[in-house]
């Protein structure tokens, strides 16, 4: 993710870390008038790292919209290069279990009455998994950008010099349903081919479970999603990285046939609590202009302003407003074959220090 130089950094990384590891004294009061913003957790996408420049800039922007916000970038490992590797290689169920423990044990997050969450690309469905499986502390508003909620039917392309990506995608092209691939390669765990649906139901390590698609439904998943105040799903209208792009709105795509979420059994039978959430006005469909993870600071500012902030300040706008938002300052979070959630160099924009990944 890159951002033009004139976007001011509104608090330093040092202050963020100081807040993140502060003493376990609650910053929140049992008061309806308390104006302390809820903490925000961020989960990055494939090929990114929690401490990359782009993630820090998103954290700064979230704090600038709601001053005083504690922003916690989710990580699997503290070393940035290992965290990036883990976005390709690892067991998502085990990774999610670790994140649940880390958040529940955090000295400040654990004292909050709720948290807000934003997931970029695959980080979006992983955060939804957090809501369904753990939700301690509970998520109030979940925002996802270009996430693969209904899976992918094709694996991504890699840049020539990105050997981690190329190795992972080569293995994925052999047999995505083998126990080794499903237990070790992250993108395989949200691969969902309608032409191999029975194999998906039988072998999927992650997505088939958190989508409650198997015959035995997990009622906790449904209850936790229905408890959300807002579930905001952004789809990029020119996304060429995520196939199909409509997965960001839980739409089912089989060839040229597209079935909207509200026409699916997943919704009509309410396997996940999405229908209940929708009926109370909490399910929101929004579009973002451009290719995958090309985000303007205007759009992010609007999203953070609409749905994040103090616990009792507002409940977010109810209209989906699928309008374009083209600002002067842009985040480019990894389109055109770069990593999901990564900065790309464009003109006078800040470039990540992690090289030309993906």
Automatic annotation (TrEMBL):
Signal peptide span: 1-22
Domain of life the protein comes from: Eukaryota
Extent of Basic and acidic residues compositional bias: 317-328
Pfam families hit by this protein: Palm_thioest
GO molecular function: palmitoyl-(protein) hydrolase activity
Swiss-Prot/TrEMBL keywords: Disulfide bond, Glycoprotein, Hydrolase, Signal
Residue numbers spanned by region Disordered: 311-358
EC number: 3.1.2.22
PANTHER family assigned to the protein according to its UniProt record, in alphabetical order: PALMITOYL-PROTEIN THIOESTERASE 1 (PTHR11247:SF8), PALMITOYL-PROTEIN THIOESTERASE/DOLICHYLDIPHOSPHATASE 1 (PTHR11247)
Family, similarity comment: Belongs to the palmitoyl-protein thioesterase family.
Protein name (database record): Palmitoyl-protein thioesterase 1
Native source organism of the sequence: Podospora anserina (strain S / ATCC MYA-4624 / DSM 980 / FGSC 10383) (Pleurage anserina)
């Amino acid at each position: 993710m890159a951002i033009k130089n004139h976007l001011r950094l509104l608090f330093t990384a040092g202050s963020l870390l100081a807040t993140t590891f502060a003493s376990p004294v609650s910053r929140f009061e049992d008061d309806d008038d308390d104006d302390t913003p809820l903490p925000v957790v961020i989960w990055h996408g494939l090929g990114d790292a929690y401490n990359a420049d782009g993630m820090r800039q998103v954290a700064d922007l979230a704090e600038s919209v709601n001053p005083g916000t504690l922003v916690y970038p989710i990580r699997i490992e503290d070393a940035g290069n290992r965290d990036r590797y883990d976005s390709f290689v690892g067991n998502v169920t085990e990774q999610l279990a670790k994140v649940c423990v880390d958040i529940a044990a955090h000295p400040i997050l654990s004292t909050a009455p709720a948290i807000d969450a934003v997931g970029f690309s695959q980080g979006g469905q992983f955060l939804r998994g957090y809501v369904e499986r753990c939700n301690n502390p509970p998520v109030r508003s979940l925002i996802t950008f270009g996430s693969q909620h209904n899976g992918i039917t094709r694996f991504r392309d890699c840049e020539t010099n990105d050997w981690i990506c190329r190795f992972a995608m080569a293995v994925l092209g052999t047999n995505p349903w083998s126990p080794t691939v499903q237990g070790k390669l992250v993108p395989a765990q949200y691969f969902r081919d309608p032409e191999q649906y029975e194999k998906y139901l039988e072998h999927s390590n992650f997505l088939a479970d958190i989508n409650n698609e198997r015959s035995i439904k997990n009622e906790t998943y449904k209850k936790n999603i229905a408890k959300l105040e807002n579930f905001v799903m952004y789809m990029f209208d020119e996304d060429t990285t995520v196939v199909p792009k409509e997965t960001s709105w839980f739409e089912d795509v089989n060839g040229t046939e597209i079935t909207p979420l509200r026409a699916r059994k997943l919704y009509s039978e309410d396997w996940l609590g999405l229908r209940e959430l929708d009926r109370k006005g909490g399910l929101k469909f929004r579009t973002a202009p451009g290719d995958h993870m090309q985000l303007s600071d205007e759009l992010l500012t609007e999203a953070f302003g609409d749905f994040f902030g103090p616990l009792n300040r507002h409940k977010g706008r109810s209209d989906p407003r699928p309008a374009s938002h083209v600002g002067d300052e842009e985040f480019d979070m990894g389109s055109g074959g770069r990593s999901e959630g990564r900065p790309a160099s464009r003109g006078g924009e800040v470039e990540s220090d992690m090289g030309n990944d993906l």
